[in-house]
Design goal:
The chain is mainly beta. The chain has five helices and 13 strands. The N terminus and C terminus are likely disordered.
């Protein structure tokens, strides 16, 4: 979900999954966090992609990234906390998303931007592949937390909206060892909303937006990805094909 954070050069990325904020003894269970009624309203393809303990998978797609002027400021300031935000503005950017179990109950989301093949960019994309990574895991309160390698984290609500699986941030904090240091809302880039919308025919749309209470939208990211597992349920495809305009992985 966090395609938000500044890419790290692919040849220097640490491939060890982030340390969990608390030991986990069971897999992350998004169906339980969303609730049975909400989960039942999701297309079967979405249920499969986010089911507990699902197999590792990679998705190929193309993304559009936008960052506002104030977003650039947040991106620069966030560098001091070890989890910088990306300042990229680009369209038609090929990307690969890899999802895997971290061995402690959490799920690692790793996104590789193939920037070397992109020509519609501004904001300093280097001529090489870049990778970002975060981990979804259970927080100490039993809720969903997404955390970057640098410790910048957010608590998330899990929702269903118009057939899309939606993650919406409630608060940000920085994990430093055993400490959880809250980040005031006005000092964050805003409420984060991520949606995973099935488009049918083995494709889905990922959309991320961050909206600050004063500065409006600071970051926006959207992309269409292909699922390597083909669903044969035509009823599911027909149900989801009407949701092209929803706003994650």
């Amino acid at each position: 979900m966090f395609a938000l954070f500044t890419p790290t050069a692919a040849n220097t990325i640490n491939t060890t999954a982030p340390q969990a904020t608390a030991p986990q003894t069971r897999p992350l269970d998004l169906p339980a966090l969303a609730g049975p009624a909400a989960w039942a309203r999701l297309p079967r393809a979405v249920q499969r992609r986010f089911a507990a303990a699902h197999a590792d998978v990679a998705y190929e797609g193309v993304m559009e990234l936008r960052c506002s002027r104030i977003g650039h400021v947040f991106a620069a300031l966030a560098r001091f906390w070890g989890g910088p935000l990306t300042h990229l503005n680009t369209t038609g950017l090929p990307a690969t998303v890899r999802v895997s179990d971290n061995g402690r109950g959490g799920v690692v989301w790793e996104r590789c931007f193939h920037s070397g093949s992109n020509s519609n960019s501004s904001g300093g994309i280097s001529n090489s592949d870049c990778t970002v990574r975060s981990t979804k895991e259970l927080g100490t309160d039993g809720g969903l937390v997404e955390r970057t390698d640098g410790g910048l984290s957010m608590s998330l609500d899990v929702l269903e909206e118009d057939g899309a699986l939606v993650f919406r941030s409630r608060r940000f904090f920085w994990v430093l060892g055993s400490l959880r240091i809250p980040v005031p809302a006005l000092l964050t880039p805003g409420t984060c909303r991520v949606a995973h919308t099935d488009l049918g025919a083995g494709q889905f749309r990922f959309t991320l937006s961050m909206v600050h209470p004063w500065w409006g939208e600071t970051f926006h990211q959207s992309g269409v990805f292909t699922d390597p597992i083909a669903d044969t349920d035509t009823e599911t495809d027909a149900h989801t094909a009407t949701h092209f305009n929803a706003t994650s992985l």
